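Inverse folding, one chain.
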């Protein structure tokens, strides 16, 4: 599947929502965890601990699909903290086991909470201020519930991430002179980061207006776009840190010419997490 194919799948699943969107996001989350575990042997040292990471991600997705109540998120946090710790019952208490436990908990929390947030964001109920967008959300809804607001937020996050990455690449290659964090990612520059902010802000403001997302003014949309860009850059650098520590160029090879799933989703997953936090706070 190409990078463009992933974008198409993302938008279509965002339109449909419900179990289809949850299944797509969960599959991507499982793929990210699997690639990270392969890159970093300390993650999931032993089959039981590695399986606990997969269980965290699937459980996080299931809870988000079943309930939007605050206790659901609390339960996810408890699962993230406790499930990998089952290693205590069948492993020796040595340095390798401890490092593996902490690594597994960290990456399963990072991916699991992002999956939970993405599904929760898509299930966010509420109307939009433009009739056509409301009708679109109702038309594609498999449940009949009005979650057009959640649909719009997910699409804003996807578009902002994509345009942010595109602008960062173009501006960085054309005008990049000042390294951002060369010890982690030598090719990333401050100029590219500025391009990322401009791209994310443009996409966010445009879609907020087009969809008519309530309670989000133009100044607030600009701020949200800048936050999305910063979070996306962080996600990109976080994956670069893991790859540099593992001594690999790509997280995987499932996407011809584009590397692995994590290579494509590194900025989007944390952006969806932050979008969920912002959307629930605003609405």
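Residues assigned per position:
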């Amino acid at each position: 599947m190409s990078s463009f194919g992933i974008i198409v799948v993302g938008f279509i699943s965002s339109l449909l929502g419900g179990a289809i969107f949850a299944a797509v996001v969960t599959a991507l989350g499982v793929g990210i965890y699997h690639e990270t575990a392969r890159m970093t042997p300390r993650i999931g040292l032993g089959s039981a601990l590695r399986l606990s990471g997969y269980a965290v991600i699937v459980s996080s997705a299931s809870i988000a699909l079943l309930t939007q109540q605050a206790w659901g998120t609390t339960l996810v946090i408890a699962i993230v903290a406790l499930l990998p710790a089952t290693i205590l019952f069948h492993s020796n208490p040595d340095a390798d086991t401890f490092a593996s436990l902490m690594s597994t908990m960290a990456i399963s929390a990072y991916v699991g909470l992002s999956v939970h947030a993405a599904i929760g964001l898509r299930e966010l109920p509420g109307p939009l201020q433009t009739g056509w967008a409301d009708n679109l959300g109702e038309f594609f809804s498999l449940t009949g519930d009005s979650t057009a607001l959640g649909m719009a937020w997910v699409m804003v996050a996807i578009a902002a991430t994509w345009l942010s990455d595109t602008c960062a690449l173009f501006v960085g290659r054309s005008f990049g002179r000042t390294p951002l964090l060369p010890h982690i990612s030598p090719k990333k520059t401050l100029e590219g980061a500025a391009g990322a902010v401009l791209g994310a802000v443009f996409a966010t403001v445009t879609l907020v207006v087009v969809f008519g997302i309530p309670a989000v003014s133009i100044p607030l949309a600009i701020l949200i776009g800048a936050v999305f860009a910063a979070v996306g850059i962080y996600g990109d650098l976080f994956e670069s840190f893991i790859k540099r520590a593992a001594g690999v160029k790509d997280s995987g090879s499932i996407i011809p010419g584009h590397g692995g799933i994590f290579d494509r989703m590194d900025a989007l997953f944390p952006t969806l997490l932050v979008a969920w936090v912002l959307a629930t706070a605003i609405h």
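The chain has two domains: 18-122, 126-283. DSSP finds eleven helices and two strands in the chain.
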